[in-house]
Amino acid sequence: MSDPELSRPIKARPLPGGTITIEADEAERRRLSGRFSLSAINSLRASAEVEEKGKAIRARGHLNAKIMQLCAVSAEDFPVTISEPFDLRFVPEGTLAQEHDEEIELEADDCDEIEYSGDTFDLGEAVAQTLGLAIDPYAEGPNAEEARKTAGIAEEGQQDGPLAEALAALKKG
Asked: How far apart are CA 98 and CA 114, in angstroms?
């Protein structure tokens, strides 16, 4: 496995006090752009408060990023701003298997759980994963509608073309 593009190891015990801020430098943003198939990441910053919860470490914070990505329709670059809260729980390696031997149901307010080994956890990699999950793979840029019209693709809900006419006839009959 290769090194994480945004590594920020944090010593698990004792935890640092106050707010932990992670800001990706240009090289880290470039590597993350490749990882997530983005045209560019212009800025990436996250801040988190960490606290000990038994054997686990809870990290709650917020991620802000400005990215350039391709429109899913026109394939043109367009800017996207991401503002995403996160709530993470870091647990010692092997803990999740012990806790989840049977099937469980997660609630909407349950936090993501990440195992770590040794005496550090990587908050930077967790921030990178949070960014990856926040990116809309089907985002549409400002020229998406024009690209649809040029390609002759109807908007969702529009009833044009022979297939739409056949479906409409079936609904009537």
From this structure: 14
User: Cα–Cα distance between 57 and 11 in angstroms, integer?
Assistant: 11
| Cα(155)–Cα(148) distance, integer angstroms | 8
Domain count, the chain: 1
In a domain, 4, yes or no: no
Count of beta carbons in the 10 Å neighbourhood of residue 20: 19
Within-domain flag for 77: yes
- Domain with 30, as residue range(s), is 9-142
Residue 106's pLDDT band (boundaries 50, 70, 90)?
very low
Could you give the count of Cα atoms lying within 13 Å of 75 in the half-sphere of its Cβ? 1
Q: What is the pLDDT of residue 4?
A: 84
Query: Does 117 map to a domain?
Result: yes
The mean pLDDT value for 61-76 works out to 95
Burial, 25: exposed, middle or buried (Cβ in 10 Å; 0-12, 13-18, 19+)? Answer: exposed
What is the structure's pLDDT at 108? 44
**Separation CA 97–CA 93 (nearest Å):** 9
Residue 44 lies in a domain: yes
